[in-house]
Each structure stands twice: as C-alpha cells, then as structure tokens.
Predict the 3D structure of the following.
Amino acid sequence: MARPRVKICCISSIDEAKVAVENGASALGLVGHMPGGPGVIEDELINRIAQTVPPPISTFLLTSETKSRDIIRHHERVHTTTIQIVDELENREYEVLHNELPGVKLVQVIHVIDEGSVIEAIEISRFADALLLDSGNPELEVKELGGTGRTHDWTLSREIGKSVPIPIFLAGGLNKDNIKQAIETVQPFGVDLCSGVRTNGKLDKQKLKDFFHAMEN
C-alpha cells in the first residue's frame, strides 16, 4: 500500500506553510471562520499563504458556509486549490460549485458518529471529489466541525472507504503513536492532522519529523 498523502491543517502563517511543505506535507489546511475550534485565520491571510504555496501542493480552504453562493464568495476571497466543506451543504448544490468554480476540488467532511455517517458518505460520494472523515459533531448547540483532537471509530471509516468510489482522508486525533494503526485499519488516500504536530498551538518541527518517521517505519 502506498504511503497516504499528508495534509497539515490549521496553518497560521507563511512560515508554518513553508515548514509543513519542507517536511513532507502534500496539502495545507487554511481555516476560515468557524463556530469553534483551532486554527481560524482571516481570509486575507489565507489568500496570502495560498499564493506562496508551490504546486503540486494543495491548499484547502476550510469553510463553515452552508450555502453554495456563500461558499463561492468565500473562495473568491482566498483562491485556494481546494474547498473543504465542514458542514452540510444546503440542498446538496455541489453542481453549482463545480460549474462556478471549475478546476477547484470539493472535499466534503463527514463527521463519523455512527452507521448513519456511512450512509451519508455513500450518498455524498456521488457529488464530491473526496471525503474527509473527521470526529466532530455538527448536532451540538455549538457545532463541532473539526479540530477536536479526538479519534473516532475507525472501523466505520474503513467501511466508508470500501463503499465509496472517491478518495478519503482520515482526520481526528492522529499523531505519531497511532498513525500506523490508523493507516492499517482504514487504508486512506490521505491523512489530516492539526494538534498532533503542534505544541502550544504552534507547528512543531520535531513533532512533524517524528510523525513522518512513524509513518514510514
């Protein structure tokens, strides 16, 4: 099995983006306005960071917008290569996004809670370019839409991966100590991490090196 691609999320500066790429990241997550969670930065900074990232590294805008037109407007302010939709898209207007933003990849987050999440993932896999399987809970009074630092039931994520025709990214509480088991269990196309490579909220070069070493050994 090929080594999964690694997306480092919650990038907060041009320097962090550079460090992540130099240490092996294939994609960077840039967090727009959220109801809660780590890593939120202003759209102007997201745009500045995105413009410094060389191809073929992907830049993901994490947006909590739920209406297609609002997502389009959000992307027009930042110009990332990919949009990561962290909440449920109203009326599943993925076709509107594909038509208005040709060439921009759409990654839909599925918050893996129970078997219902598997059904949801299978349905949405018809519209998105990839799924990102995370450990949030959008049903709470203050929605958890990512960055929880918690793992979820990886057997459900494995079931999703076997049931959909598009790539999956695995997120939620990944670190150097559990990444091998996570990969062996789920066999994802990519993995996504934030807190697992940070110290006091800052990207930690040593934790990054330890993570990639753990993946490869």
